[in-house]
Amino acid sequence: MMGSISRRHFLSAAGLMGAAGAMGAMAGCAPRMAGAEENPLSNTTLPEGEEVVLSDGTVWKGTPPEIAALGASTMPLEELNRRRKAYVDSQTEFVADDGTVVPAPYVKMRALIHTHGFGCGEGLNKEMFVRMMDTFTEEQAEAYLDMPWGKDFTVNEYYHKCQQEGIERTYEECKELWS
Q1: Are 20 and 109 contacting, i.e. CB atoms less than 8 angstroms apart?
Q2: Within 10 Å of residue 176's Cβ, how many Cβ atoms?
Q3: Which residues in the chain show pLDDT less than 50?
Q4: The whole model's pTM is what?
Q5: How far is residue 127 from each of residues 42, 99, 133, 146, measured CA to CA in Å?
Q6: How many Cβ atoms sit within 10 Å of the Cβ of residue 111?
Q7: Angle of CA points 6, 151, 173, to nearest 5°
Q8: Angle CA(143)–CA(83)–CA(30) in degrees, nearest 5?
Q9: In angstroms, how far is CA 115 from the centroid of its own chain?
Q10: What pLDDT sits at residue 4?
Q11: Closest CA to 42 of 62, 22, 23, 57
């Protein structure tokens, strides 16, 4: 049961969660993630001699210190998305002080939104998830997390990605979610 949420509604909700994100992107910064000792997205320098080889063979040796000192980054989108995926995948359900359990798909969706710009606020509490839980089913949240990140894509590309990753989602379901 996918409901009647459209891609446009999802993007609108994501925009509401991270309204200040554009300012952060222009400043070249990444948010400090709630509960994280070290934000894997904000550390854009690499230890001496380390490098990241991207899928096209390009070698990224980290952001030069003089650029990092200005709060900017040269991190390629592919590396940012790799780190973003690792962070989102590491999220689990959230248990509030009163024992309320927020299922993992909503926590992961919040984490993904939180990795853009200034994020969606520090500290976790159950109120942070109310709008998301009212707007999306768990299944919809999981489906949106399965969509390609950081690029425009067609419904065919989304369906192909689902097929490649062994996600049992029909073309019609992909089309309904994508539209």
Answers
A1: no
A2: 18
A3: 1, 16, 18-38
A4: 0.67
A5: 26, 13, 10, 25
A6: 21
A7: 35
A8: 100
A9: 6
A10: 58
A11: 62
